[in-house]
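job 3f2a | input accepted
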Amino acid sequence: MDMQTLRRRVESIHALPTVPGAFRQISAMLEKPRITLDELGRFVSKDPALTAKILKMVNSAAFGFPGRISSVSHAIMLLGLNVIKGLLLGVSFSELMQKSMTGLWEHSLGCAYSARFIARKKNLKEPEETSVCGLLHDIGKVVMMLGFPREFEKVSAEAEATGVTLYEAEKKFFAATHADVGCWLAQKWHFPLSLVEAIGYHHTPQLARHSPMETAIVHVADILVRAKGVGFAGDLLVPAVHPASWEMLNLSEGDLRDIFAGMEGAGAAAEEI
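job 3f2a | predicted structure (273 res):
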């Protein structure tokens, strides 16, 4: 399949019958060029189950506000438009991940926690946005599984049989990867460039131009979560960290101990969300 055909099919993913109804509605809303916090608030408030999931998420270890946020309006005011958009997408996929891609939701929450920890360590202005980058970095895998289930199953089997990462097997089979797919969708949903790059380049952080720090954080967080074995990202390999990213973040042994301790709690919270 050539890349143009793949992209066209990916960008019409909301039309598939296998896509959860909540995601279909959220995707349609996010495709609007401009959306306000009030619109988001009204949308979430109409769905009690979605409201409960959003509040569980923001009060989880991944976001570091345990017990502090008790309403959607408070969450929107505190976290802002881009974070709430990302959380909506994350929770709309959570049930699907838990049923169809065992371990990916735990991996994603572990990455969200780790990304936020590192972002705070590096004094980034919006650590919660970086946490959302971690939460959504593998959203392309979910979309590929929904849109091309047989092909994706073959790719997964090929990766396991040949001892390569899922990312490498995707490149060979599709001429594109889950990172590309996630990047296309992040653009379609009008996310900021920092999130687009972090999703699109989390395996190749050296290519990020606008947001190299955020991209390096998600790259390293992803690999640390794999190394710790929290959840399952689609293969059992732990890729090498890109040297420039590791040098940029300059994490100490104490930082790593704290990250590893916290990510287990974030992963364990996956069943509750």
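job 3f2a | The first helix runs from residue 3 to 11.
job 3f2a | closed
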